[in-house]
Amino acid sequence: MKKRKNILQTFLIFLIFTILLIPANIKHSYGLITINVQTDKQTYGVGELIQVNGTIYYGTPLTTLVGIEICDKYDHTITIRTLVSGETISGNWKLEVLNVTPCDANLNPKQQFNLGDYAYFKIDIKNNGDSEETITTTLAIYFADGTAYTASPAYQGPISPKTTYTTLVAVPIPTNAPLGIGTAYVNIYTNRPKNGGYPYCPEKAANFTIIGSGTPLPYMETAPKTTRGIFKLVIKTMKTDNFLGNYTVYATAFYYNEQGQDTAQFKLILRGDVNVDGKVNMKDIILVIGKFGTKNGDPNWQPIYDLNNDDKVDMKDIIIAIANFGNTGYYLP
Predict the structure, then answer these.
(1) For residue range 276-293, what is the model confidence (pLDDT) as tens digits?
(2) CATH of 282-330, one of 3.40.50.150, 1.25.40.80, 1.10.1330.10, 3.50.50.60
(3) CA–CA gap between residue 131 and residue 292 (Å, rounded)
(4) Overall pTM > 0.85
């Protein structure tokens, strides 16, 4: 009888010990954030559409905020955004962007800006928490066709608890900007995603209109809604003054006191610049025409003129050179 009692006690102790271990085992096996980011191609020409795709899991597909930053190898940021890995997200945010208001230099609301003007954006952010926070607030400007024009800090530093902070940011509108509806996106991060920072809250957006002589372009949605665990961003680079070479996509997220991050790389080239002078003009088009009809294996074959990499120079290559006419970029070490 005593022996049976000891066996029963041993079994109960083992059972209790096993039950106590189950939460720890589940957290260890499934609790860590897994985030993956990639681009749809490895190489893009200046002005081409870049598609960033990613997934995020916390054991199962996760709906959360994902910080995205894209930088060239010289640490210039071409865009910085906060995406949602799912359709919608809500919460009681410790930090939040209250308003983004297009305006003039005197804070008067203004919706339309001419080419060559300065557009101003009044940004109101709030610390809803009970402690001071050091934050990085950013402003990213997109044109109607999805071109990521600029990304810059709007405010970096401390913000006191229960305080609303207002700042004004001026953005020059290029004389060659696409006409139509542009968008300003404001985000708050613990730090830049490149430096491991993550979003405090969803981004806040405001539309404005660039006017001038010509036809406005259709508006392109750059962060389409997705299903749970998936995030997407589609953008274009500017057609002029790009830094050519390697770019890095940084993706970060924070969930239940755990942080995940991942990177992806792609290369930006100046397609059609066959004389490698940093611009696509009539000289390049004439050079491609001069190689018309040549193919791989010919004595005078030069692959730099084969712009679509199909081992021959034909009308397709000439059309590519013409389509990229006026694009520019910088070849730097």
Answers:
(1) 999 999 999 999 999 999
(2) 1.10.1330.10
(3) 68
(4) yes
